[in-house]
Amino acid sequence: QVQLVESGGGLVQAGGSLRLSCAASGTIFGIASMGWYRQAPGNERELVAYKHSGGGTFYADSVKGRFTISRLSGDNMMYLQMNDLKPEDTAVYLCSAGMVTTRPPNEFWGQGTQVTVSS
User: Fold this and answer.
1) Residue 74, SS3?
2) Which of 15, 38, 90, 109 has the fewest C-beta atoms lying within 10 Å of its C-beta?
3) At residue 44, what are phi and psi to the nearest 5 degrees?
4) What is the distance between the alpha carbons of residues 58 and 51, in angstroms, rounded to a whole number?
5) What is the pLDDT along the chain (119 residues), one digit of tens a residue?
């Protein structure tokens, strides 16, 4: 089992930056991919970015050029640097981990951290 805990959310003005962190514990040696999703009220959960152990990285079109996901290979920490934030980025951001590289991570989930961007 893998436990995930997010931190770093908060309230920021449009154009500002936040850095989210996700700490993994438990059976982390089997983690092959880690990523971030977000969910705004009334919306479906959206994949924001993920990175897998083979080096591949994915970003949703809506965040390309503004968000950067990082994780050192085998490290238990993952980060999401979010720059030039927009009100539409407001959501609960959830960390996820998976044991395969062939699909986005979705096996283990954190509780989420709220990001609110004011206009």
Assistant:
1) coil
2) 15
3) -75, 160
4) 7
5) 899 999 999 999 999 999 999 999 998 888 999 999 999 999 999 999 999 888 889 999 999 999 999 987 767 899 999 999 999 999 999 999 999 888 999 999 999 999 999 99
* Both tokens assigned to 100: 């395969």
Exposure string over 87-108, b if 16+ CB within 10 A, otherwise e? eebbbbbbbbbbeebeebbbbb
* Amino acid present at 101: T
Q: Alpha-carbon distance 96 to 8, whole Å?
A: 16
| Residue appearing with tokens 């999703």 | 37
How many alpha carbons fall within 13 Å on the CB side of residue 102? 0
Compute the chain's Rg from CA coordinates: 13
Q: Which amino acid is at 118?
A: S
